[in-house]
Amino acid sequence: MPGDFLRRTPQLTIKQFHAFRDERPKEEKWELIDGVPMMMPPPTLVHQRIARNLEALLNAHLESAKPEWHADREVGVLLEGDEKYNPEPDVIVIDAKIRLGQVYAERFYVVAEVLSDSDRKSVLDAKLAYYQAHEHNRCVLLVRQDRVGADQHDRREGATWRRRTLRSPHTPLAIPDIGTIGRLGDLYKFTPLDPFSRH
What we know:
By secondary structure, the chain is of the alpha+beta class. 22% of the residues lie in helices and 27% in strands.
């Protein structure tokens, strides 16, 4: 598990966090990051379309390339034995096979966050460290919504990670163990940032 990135109080356990969250208005979205409850602001429409485009690109490719995996949006992560994290990535690749009544992903292979102006560096650093610490995860994608761009973190052998900054709309989105799912610019389809003028 990553170390303590957020030096704030209170530090809540998962049980305490869920009790706190369940008392909040249903329209509020909360995550537990390094033991600290964090309320997420309502997403913009551009944010939603970027996430939806990424989910669609992943699933279109996974259906034939890796049908045992499936991409979903806004699925909470709760790993066995972890008392400090309960995040909800914007897009996540998990096992296609799920159980009736299952709420949280217990294993994941790719996660993506669409960045917002309100995101704090300490929170992003904590999330990134958490996502990279999960042994099954291959890739973390941090996507801009104010311009075309993303930071892609890929797992390499020896549990090390390589960071690449993507800027060109034509840059292939090549995901480890999945393949090329499209171009960076395809994430911005049906948004004002669409570099290919399809709207």
